[in-house]
Amino acid sequence: DPDGKTEVVLLACGSFNPITNMHLRLFELAKDHLHETGKYKVIKGIISPVGDAYKKKGLISANHRVTMAKLATKNSDWVEVDDWESCQSEWLETLKVLRYHHQKLLSADVTNSVQDAVPITKLGRKRKQESNRHEPVKKKNQSPVVKSVPQVKLLCGSDMLESFGIPNLWKLEDITEIVEKHGLVCISRAGNNAQKFIYESDLLWRHKNNIHLVEEWITNDISSTKIRRALRRGQSIRYLVPEAVRAYIERQRLYGPEGEDRNAGLLLAPLQKHASEPGAHGLHN
Amino acid sequence: VRMRSRIPVILLSCGSFNPTTNMHMRLFELARDHLHQTGQYQVIEGIMSPVSDKYGKKGLVSARHRVAMARLALETSDWIRVDPWESEQNTWTETVKVLRHHYEEALRAFQSQEFMKNKYPTGSSTADSLSCQQPVLPELKLLCGADFLQTFKTPNLWKEEDIKEIVEKFGLVCVSRAGSDPSQFIQESDLLSEFQHNIFLVREWIQNEISATQIRSALCRGLSVKYLIPDSVIAYIAQHNVYTAESECRNKGHLLQPLRPQNTPINPLRD
Fold this sequence. Notes:
The complex is a heterodimer. Chain A is an alpha/beta fold. Chain A has a single domain, classed as 3-Layer(aba) Sandwich (Rossmann fold), CATH 3.40.50. Chain A is 41% helix and 14% strand. In chain A, helix 2 runs antiparallel to helix 11. About 8% of the residues of chain A have low confidence. Chain B has a domain of 180 residues: Rossmann fold (3-Layer(aba) Sandwich). Chain B has a 6-stranded parallel β-sheet with strand order 3-2-1-4-5-6. In chain B, helix 2 runs antiparallel to helix 11. Chain B starts with 6 loop residues before the first strand and ends in a 22-residue tail after the last helix. In chain B, 41% of the residues lie in helices and 15% in strands. Chain B is of the alpha/beta class. The longest helix of chain B is centred in the middle third of the chain and has 25 residues. Chains A and B meet through helix 1 and helix 10 of A and helix 1 of B. Chain B: Its EC number is 2.7.7.1, 2.7.7.18.
């Protein structure tokens, strides 16, 4: 942007089953943190609910999860929901979702550039320049049409970071590309293991400048699992999820006892996929 | 088989509400669920009672704002309301006096309701026909967090007779975090042990420790508090510029009203 700050889009992937105030807080904490470094400007937040093919136990239909996420973000002026991932018939690796959104920004950027371009270079050449721009652009002889594409960073909690260590859940090359080419913003509770986890992995350590750890001082343990549990037991979830989400769950009678048995006994999609794939999975060392 | 009537309960929460957070409101929801699950109670109302400005706590903004914010926060609730009575008093009011006031109000409402029912019997409700001839008087219970319970130990803060009246005549519903367990604290006090049947301990398994102090601190630093307090309260704070570096300095160096010499009780809680 004109101040020389790198523009960032925060992408959160997950079940959002259902979305809670804690999920929404992640965005707020991440944005505040990145802004306070003075180097970044967060321009958008994207919530990308996982597709039904993920086969996680208790995962209700994507239609509901996307609708609830949209209800939850209707009062936000910068966080939105993208349902591309949820519409795919097969489960998609997180990296693919990152790449998709990055590509989307690239195309949008080229379109914008073309629109206000002074035709100096050919379209093809400009596009090639931009696709290699991952570093923040320094303010020197920039023609008005060429600007760096915003970075898409994966927003997550420390549980996702530590899931890099679960055998067969992630492909090593995917983790590498995520931390190398995109970046991670990881929110965790004070006194957590995230720093230690990064220290203990050569790969993560090498890219630690691209892994932003944000400490959440206000303990906020509103996990979707607990929300579903409370609902099964007829307990109130008010003030833990946005009111519109609570009302939707009530109207649609979601998360009754049967809901939790969905996909019971099935293997999580990435585990199933990677079990039969050659190549390195997860972090070793 | 005759259906046993549940005892109607009103929950009263006293505090600064500076500002009201999602956690303040969660306490009500947790307490209500807990009492309902005992099978013996029916929570009919929740009352939020912001403390008067005379309390003298550091950073306490004017009651006018605190009541307005509580009202906004409770817009979506159909059973909890804010009552400004305590905040409108000229002096700081002991918690036990606030309890007495609201109990008298509740009794009055109950009695006029019974009077109307007897004068104009409608015979509509099954509950009425099944319940025993004596209608059940409502009970008023003080809703609080475990930290509030702990303040009973603070020297000079409470009069022993007040604590006794609270746990004997009214009752306490105390919500605590997953990790902490106030039952030991209760066991260590003869007074509290005697009335432990009237002290309801509720475990909050979904941790949500949104302290108002942290909220004010975040606001002063220009950090986001969205999803920790209601949007309507955030908008109000911005519109009226409620929390600033100056407001945080209010009452700085002053002693809390209950601790001031004229209020010092002779026998603090000592077991």
